[in-house]
Amino acid sequence: xxxxxxxxxxVVVVLLALAVKAxxxxxxxxxRIGYLVASTSSLNPSFHEAFRQGLRDxxxxxxxxxxxxxxxxxGKPERLPELADELIRLKVDLIVAPTATGAxxxxxxxxxxxxxxxxxxxxxxx
Length: 126
Description:
There is one protein chain. The protein is an alpha/beta fold. It is built from four helices and four strands, in the order αβαβαβαβ. It has a domain at 32-117: 3-Layer(aba) Sandwich (Rossmann fold), CATH 3.40.50. The protein has helices spanning 2-24, 45-57, 80-89, 100-109, and strands at residues 32-37, 67-72, 94-97, 115-117. α3 crosses α4 (100-109).
């Protein structure tokens, strides 16, 4: 009986060790979106909420499985390149720019991070 118990105990110990190792592994990286806007945060809050709702509809919940870094130029478009550069330093995975002005500012500071223009009548011409 003792000979049969030793292998069983070893199997249990190995399984426990694997379970502890699995729990100690780092969680997967949470995607980070940079949101670059020339206006203020209070301008057009329904658009911002629609953006967040669209993410939720796709299964992304801000603060849980996605992070959004908001940067507002407060009506001073000349600040957009500085804010875009800040998003690059934060290592965002994607930049959302609701206007062509924001998209151009982002394009000047990165060629590797995807930029999504949301509200542009002529994205190619812009």
